[in-house]
Design goal:
With 404 residues, the chain is α+β, with helices and mostly antiparallel strands. The chain folds into three domains: 41-153, Immunoglobulin-like, CATH 2.60.40.2310; 157-265, Sandwich (Immunoglobulin-like); 271-378, Immunoglobulin-like. The protein has three helices and 28 strands. The chain has helices spanning 2-35, 150-156, 377-403; strands spanning 41-45, 49-53, 58-66, 72-80, 86-91, 94-95, 98-101, 106-114, 122-132, 138-148, 160-163, 168-171, 177-185, 191-198, 204-209, 218-221, 226-234, 242-251, 256-265, 271-274, 281-285, 290-298, 304-312, 318-322, 325-329, 334-342, 350-360, 363-374. It has a five-stranded antiparallel beta sheet with strand order 1-3-8-5-6, with no helix packed on it.
């Protein structure tokens, strides 16, 4: 009985405690809500001033806040940029013109600034504005971009260490190659680092997180820490085989670093096989040779070496190629090959399938032929002779019987 009283008292105590905590939480939320204004918004870059070198872009986090007691749809715009400059508000790879922010919450976007080519050293203001969808509440802010000469920036550049385990990747022209690099922030503060590259013309080169399918042009790295990212490279489809250097640059207002990557293109390996008239059939006689000519064209960008031929045929059939192999076939080059097919002596009249395989360097192409085996014409004449002899015998027999 005493044990029941203990349990009952403990249960009552826990119930009262939970009710008290809920009431305190509600009271705190109500008190906080009473302290908020009815409505209000703000927009501001995380850093009001950045320093970049000439011909360099800048990316800064843009913080949008809802200061009031209700959720807001906030329209955003870049209202003033220097002549020839381009500035836009974005997230990942697409632009932003508005954002929904909950009460007493904030959203972080990216302000991407691209100076005009050849901009001189100096200070350049970028103005941003925000307003509620009904236009009743507004906020504005400014980012000051300071451009310093390249020479000075080079002297000050420090604090970025870039490493990669595989600086050289090899593959065909139509492949998608991906380098992995590690960027270490050796400065004494957190910073946003802009990513840029110098590469072959018309190549598609992008930066992306490791193991993710989204692109970015800057990343935040905390002091004394590092981040791994991928450099995705898609060569120009008509690029010639060879070595192509790609220089990747990582920089912020106070630090920068470079790493050189190399792509070795081996070209593409493709073959096209067919006949001049498009027909893939021929007639043959039992035990007699039948010929067919087909072409081989190198439709890739790499030279094909030591091209060999194989055949898959019915039992007791013979297949020969002339030439027996092709030593080399340059890109765009075409060569003719003569194939001789001999059906077996005992092959029945009808249609048969003969498969030809063209095996090049890292490329294979098949050609299926339909061979129609027909009876020899000699047997036709023998049959006609037999019929004539039978008819002659019958005529002779009727003549003799008629005389009797």
């Amino acid at each position: 009985m005493g044990l029941k009283k203990v349990y009952s008292s403990a249960f009552i105590f826990m119930t009262v405690f939970l009710v008290f905590m809920c009431l305190a939480s509600f009271a705190s939320a109500e008190e906080k809500e009473r302290n908020l204004p009815a409505r209000g918004i703000s927009v501001a870059p995380e850093y009001t001033g950045v320093v970049i070198s000439q011909d360099e872009d800048a990316s800064v986090d843009l913080i949008v806040k809802d200061l009031g007691r209700r959720d807001e749809d906030i329209d955003l715009a870049v209202t003033s940029v220097p002549k020839g400059w381009n500035a836009k508000i974005q997230t990942y790879s697409f632009g932003i013109t508005g954002v929904h922010v909950e009460s007493d919450k904030s959203k972080s976007l990216t302000l991407k600034v691209e100076p005009a080519k050849g901009s001189k050293p100096g200070e350049y203001p970028i103005k941003i504005s925000a307003k509620t969808d009904d236009g009743k509440f507004r906020s504005s802010s400014q980012l000051m971009v300071t451009i310093k000469p390249k020479e000075k920036m080079k002297k000050e550049a420090r604090g970025v260490n870039i490493t990669t385990s595989y600086p050289v990747l090899e593959g065909p022209t139509d492949a998608k190659l991906e380098f992995s690099i590690e960027v270490e922030n050796k400065t004494d503060k957190d910073d946003i680092f802009n990513l840029s590259y110098e590469g072959p013309k018309d190549w598609d080169i992008n930066f992306k997180p490791a193991y993710e399918d989204k692109y970015f042009s800057s990343l935040r790295i905390k002091t004394k820490q590092s981040q791994t990212l991928a450099v995705e490279v898609k060569p120009y489809p008509e690029a010639e085989p060879g070595r192509y250097p790609i220089k990747v640059k990582v920089s912020s207002g106070i630090a920068s670093g470079e790493v050189e990557l190399t792509v070795v293109l081996t070209g593409t390996y493709k073959l096209d096989v067919g006949t001049s008239n498009g027909l893939l059939s021929l007639d043959a006689l039992q035990g007699k040779e039948a010929n067919l000519s087909f072409y081989i064209r190198n439709t890739g960008s790499a030279t094909q070496n030591n091209i060999k031929f194989l055949s898959f045929k019915p039992e007791n059939w013979k297949v020969k190629f002339n030439p027996e192999n092709i030593e080399t076939l340059a890109p765009g080059e075409l060569k003719q090959v003569e194939v001789t097919i001999t059906p077996g002596e005992q092959a029945l009249v009808g249609d048969y399938s003969v498969n030809l395989s063209v095996n090049g360097e890292k490329a294979t192409k098949n050609l299926e032929l339909r061979v129609t085996v027909k009876a020899s014409t000699a047997w036709g004449w023998i049959g006609i002779g037999i019929i004539v002899l039978v008819i002659a015998g019958l005529v002779t027999m009727f003549v003799r019987l008629g005389r009797r």
